[in-house]
Amino acid sequence: MWRPENIPCDPGFTPQDRVILHADCNSYFASVESIDHPEYKLVPMAVCGDPSLRHGIILAKNELAKAYHIQTAETIYSAKKKCPDLLLVSAHHEKYAAVCERINAIYEGYTDLVERFSIDESFLDVTGSRHLFGPGSQIADELRRRIREEIGVTVSVGVSFNKTFAKMGSDYKKPDATTVISRDNYQEILWPLPIDQLLFVGKSCASMLRDRGFFTIGDLARADPRSLSFLGKTGASLQKAACGLDLSPVLPVGYEEQPKSISHNVTFDHDLAEESEIIAGLTLISDQVGTRLRSKKLYAAVVQIQIKDAALTVINRQKKLDDYISSTRIIRDTAAELLRENWPLGKPIRMLSVGVTGLSMDGVQQLSVFSDTNAAEKARRLDEAVDGIRSRYGRDAVRFGRPLDKKA
């Protein structure tokens, strides 16, 4: 009879460890385009958006294009300056989605615990599969071989005892490689890396950490937890990740977990500069966020905005509220306040995003932003009335603001 102790152990893993894979398709859009056009592999090539739709940016590039330091999300104009002979190919998203299904079907032949992280990335928990298919590194190598031979796409796979290190393992060596991050080697491999290489450390957070003397992942891992208090709860979470203490599970398709944030964004068909247009945009986006928040019976403590201009400059701002809220009006008004405080009046806006985080299922009276209880009660009843009408007659039965496709 099979028993857990009979599972073959990877070197550097204990019998109690989970074995998590993170599989990341290399240059995915470019690789899929090359399946039908092998000649694309012979020249510098990039997949781009349609310039006529104002999305003239690089979405993916092959290895030859990477040699010219072409970056994802840079403009086509900039990329062509670096490589005048760059072959540009229009994106075919339906094709990428179809190939994604084929790849994940292969993953699901090894474990039913497959979490799709994006269209070209998936986590796999193969802890219970090793008695059938061998150690995690062996499973990773077999997956890479099968996807390369059966589909024509190469994959880099990280193998580790948690999701954070598995993801960092797949990033560590590309293309078409398996990297094992174990308890025996994670300090040697990951701790010397720059602090911004730790998963979920963005540019702003990395800058704050470097300003305080944290330059590597190891610096963060070895720090006195009190020295990270300037980051709040985020500091403790990042230190746990750096120390290999990520316990988050692999969540298969169909598993519904309470979201950590809810957001919605719109890229406009023309730049918004008039305040009336911008507020109309914020109203419609906030309405989407508020409706989703209430549909999940959740309340939020933080409102966030993201703003992008025509030059693709992006800012992110957020504000912590005094109470947990679910009101569309509060979300919109807070987003408008953040925009007015952080974006010059009249500067054109290409994209707006509004989000909420700090979510809880515990409702709290929404009084602090209203002058009295009656105002809070009226706002609650308005939201409930709008949600009720839409549930019966459709979302378009009640609309806020004016259409965004008309200029002021």
Short description:
The protein has helices spanning 28-36, 63-66, 76-82, 93-107, 130-133, 136-150, 163-172, 186-190, 203-211, 217-221, 233-242, 275-295, 328-342, 373-393; strands spanning 20-25, 45-48, 58-61, 87-90, 114-118, 121-125, 155-160, 178-181, 261-272, 300-308, 314-325, 349-357. The protein has 408 residues and is an alpha+beta fold.
What does this structure look like?
There is one protein chain. The protein has helices at 28-36, 63-66, 76-82, 93-107, 130-133, 136-150, 163-172, 186-190, 203-211, 217-221, 233-242, 275-295, 328-342, 373-393, and strands spanning 20-25, 45-48, 58-61, 87-90, 114-118, 121-125, 155-160, 178-181, 261-272, 300-308, 314-325, 349-357. Helix 7 links the parallel strand 7 and strand 8. Among the domains are: 28-94, MutS, DNA mismatch repair protein, domain I (3-Layer(aba) Sandwich), CATH 3.40.1170.60; 191-242, 5' to 3' exonuclease, C-terminal subdomain (DNA polymerase, domain 1, Orthogonal Bundle), CATH 1.10.150; 261-397, 2-Layer Sandwich (Dna Ligase, domain 1), CATH 3.30.1490.100. It is of the alpha+beta class. The strands form 3 sheets. A 5-stranded mixed β-sheet has the order 5-6-1-7-8. The chain has a 4-stranded antiparallel β-sheet with strand order 9-12-10-11, with helices on one face.
Which spans have pLDDT < 50 for at least 5 consecutive residues?
1-5, 364-373, 401-408
Helix content: 25-40%
CATH class of the domain at 261-397: Alpha Beta
Which fold name fills CATH's third level, the topology of the domain at 261-397?
Dna Ligase, domain 1
Number of separate helices:
14
CATH H-level name of the domain at 261-397... which superfamily?
A: DNA polymerase, Y-family, little finger domain
Which strand order spans the largest sheet, edge to edge or round the barrel? 5-6-1-7-8
Strand residue content: 15-25%
Cα shape: globular
What value does the average pLDDT take?
86
Task: Please state the structural category.
Answer: alpha+beta
Radius of gyration: 24 Å
User: CA-to-CA gap between the ends?
Assistant: 74 Å
